[in-house]
Write a structure and sequence with these properties.
alpha/beta; Rossmann fold; 6-stranded mixed beta sheet; 3-stranded antiparallel beta sheet
Length: about 280
Amino acid sequence: MLDKPRSDPVAALRRPLVSLEGVTVRRGGQAILSGVDLALRAGEILTIIGPNGGGKTTLLKVVLGLIRPDRGTANVRPGLRIGYVPQRLHLDTTLPMSVRRLMRLTRRHPEFELTSALAETGVEHLVDSDVTSLSGGELQRVLIARALLAGPELLVLDEPVQGVDFSGEVALYEKIASIRERHGCAILLVSHDLHVVMAASDRVICLNGHVCCAGIPREVAEAAEYLRLFGPRAAGTVAIYRHHHDHTHDLSGEVVESGGHSRKHAHDHTHDHGER
């Protein structure tokens, strides 16, 4: 009797949750994506940057199974639990909707699950608020909490800091990084904002219809292809954060000191506050 082949748990962990090979998507005779390769493994944070119209959202839709590639293959691990935060949420402003109702639109989660997810993103006090009354940062935190209700192994975020001011961006990126640490989920993050690339990212892909360059954030910021795409000021406008501090940020991005101590900052990052 032949022995059954033994499964290798280490090899299984190394296999990508998502892999794209030579993915091409065409619309109206034009290639939106051309020959894109991508692999995302458990626990990784992969950030996609690039200009408007560069195919970032289309790439996410391929990963989510909403678009089938015209050429190439898109493989997602069977049964993979995915949480998704869209770029825009279209709500009828004439119809009131509370945060609690928004959280339960697709499934009636128990109250303790709902409040726990909101607490993790720091907005549990908004559970009875009207969604239309929320600030940009508050809404994004609610949407991330909603995505967490799925217990995702992969969290997909399409421009999560859109409509959030600069200091609020920092707070949101710190929260996203902490979610990875707490849940161990992979994160696929899209941004066209050259001012902010998460230092927590394991890898960054610069996309403009095709993969222009890829690597760790600092490598991409210095890549010739990146500089050609975004211009000579590109390297100076990318802020690569390595924050170590004894304070937290509130929903508006303001510093909240703890224990009554004076604030201290130990930052390793660069900022360029020119035009965005």
